[in-house]
Amino acid sequence: MKDLMYVISDIHGMADLFKKLLQDFDPDRHQLLLIGDLNDRGPKTKECFLLGKQLVEEQQAIYLRGNHEEYFLQFLQAPEDWFNAYVRNGGKETIESLLHTGATEEYSPTEIAMMIRSRYQELIEFLMARPLYYEWGNYLFVHAGVDLSKKHWQDTSDHDFIWIREPFHQAKNRTGKTIVFGHTITPMLHGDMQTTDLWISDHKIGIDGGAVFGGSVHGVIFDQQGIVQDIEYQNLTGPWQPDF
Question: What confidence tens digit (pLDDT) does each residue in 164-190 have?
Fold first, then answer.
């Protein structure tokens, strides 16, 4: 087990920022952990997905499932039911990245899902196998958070591991763990819709700086004592446009 953990979250198709963060990844010293949501909203999901898969297979990276990986898989299972909601939440960019520009207008949801399943079966199986959390000493890494009302955080529902927001942010953390998560952008956690710094409170560390909305990505290096380094890159391609 390596004594440094390098954690990246919520890339959302921003492959250029993903690669920038990976310049600071040292496979000899760091265990790489991707905290979910490599897809949707940004323009280069295919590149991000395939790079994430490659990092798991070649560098033993840990890649947790986020709610957007879940959205993608649900769409593929029931395309007619999920298409409109998925497209509204950034799925259009994923579909067009995997197929081609205009695919969402050109084909029915069923046809889109069939084409993706036929071309990317190995990727889909890989995404279905992603774990929901990872424990490392006194740290717990998870996409969205845990249900702190449970006596044992491990009893959190699969849905809450990837979707929970305020009940986790606001409840007292009695788990004995420092919980590192993405999912909710730090400008929202800071309460000003501007500050993209890490959000740290009650042994909870939010690291999603909202890059795809014009904020930033974080690559955070931990040892067992705390944060060793926070590497932050701003998304300079567009204005700050949170959509929720």
Answer: 999 999 999 999 999 999 999 999 999
Tokens representing residue 80 in the block = 């007619």
Rounded to an integer, what distance in angstroms lies between the CA atom of residue 169 and that of residue 129? Answer: 27
User: Which pTM was predicted?
Assistant: 0.97
Q: Tell me what the pLDDT averaged over the chain comes to.
A: 96
Contacts with 184 (C-beta within 8 Å, 6 or more apart), sequence order: 144, 165, 169, 206, 208
* C-alpha dist (Å) from residue 126 to 27, 28, 172, 185: 21, 24, 35, 26
Could you give the CA distance from residue 231 to residue 20 in angstroms, rounded to a whole number? 10
CB 49 within 8 Å of CB 39: yes
Whether the CA torsion 105, 96, 133, 226 is positive or negative: it is negative
Note the Cα 175 to chain centre separation in Å. Answer: 23
**In terms of Cα–Cα distance, which of 221, 186, 222, 178 is closest to 206?**
186
